[in-house]
Amino acid sequence: MAALPPLNAKRILLVEENPSLVERLKALLRDNGYEIESAYNCGDALAARHERFVLAIVNPEMCHRDGRSIIHHIREHHSFSRLPFISLNELGETADQILENIARHIQSSHQASKAQTGRARASAIHETQDATHIDFNELEDPNPTIRTRTINEQRKQLAALRTLSELGRSIAAVLDLDTVLNKVVEAAAQLTNAEESLLLLPDPEEEVLYLRAMKGLDVKRASSFRIKNTEPLVGRVFRSGEPILINDQGSLQRLKTEYFVRSAVYVPMRLRGETIGVLGVNNRGSNRLFSQIDQELLLDLAAHAAVAIENARLY
């Protein structure tokens, strides 16, 4: 049975083409509190959402289809080049060496990032001082309204993370597939305060995504809810493995034929580098627009859901 990663696990991107080595490293790192996403080829590694990771472990001998090494592509990539990485050759041989080297790289990159932020902040203050007088009390005590709003947002995020942790554990404990899927859509609606939540799975023969579980949709609409893999919104999420956030306040968006939403978030459910389904939430009547925070929460829930679905299928 696949292990459920801890909610607050540090994410590591593992770029390696040897499946047996990948599984061994995954087992070791997950047992020690890390969450691992694997990329078995250079294309998947370059297409990953690099901002979600604290470190990449890379096999430097891998080459892209253009013949150049993965290292060359990393150095030229707009987001991968900013992600700290360690070569497989530098990990060490024993479990203790591997864990120690990974922890050291994460810590050193974190310290470097803090130092760079501090230098940038000091430079900005210095430049401003040259131009005008600064009231340092204002710097230390920002606008109370803004500060209160920030604190409230942080409290909401913390509450959502606690809810996600509880939901993740409850989903992982269930081995009946239908129950798992229903719990996932209920969790999605609860986390994002959505009117509707949907879980779509692929039908490879017809190249469509069909509704496997839902909350908030009427039965008549749900019975015919199918989306082609070629659709520009939800279909694209399944094809690309990238989430999509619809929050344009000015107009309704067509999700499928004769089905419009005011705001929506759809995210891929990925397992071992493959998209196994799509999880989404809609607001059709409500004026509430989903945010980037909602998207991140849904991505985390989808990661838990993918593992739970596999466990239920194996059972």
From TrEMBL:
Residues 11-119 form the Response regulatory domain. GO terms for biological process: phosphorelay signal transduction system. Keywords: Hydrolase, Kinase, Transferase. Signal peptide: none annotated. One of its GO terms (molecular function) is kinase activity. InterPro entries: Bact_Sigma-Reg, CheY-like_superfamily, GAF, GAF-like_dom_sf, Sig_transdc_resp-reg_receiver. This is Response regulatory domain-containing protein. The lineage of its organism: Bacteria, Bacillati, Chloroflexota, Candidatus Thermofontia, Candidatus Thermofonsia Clade 1.
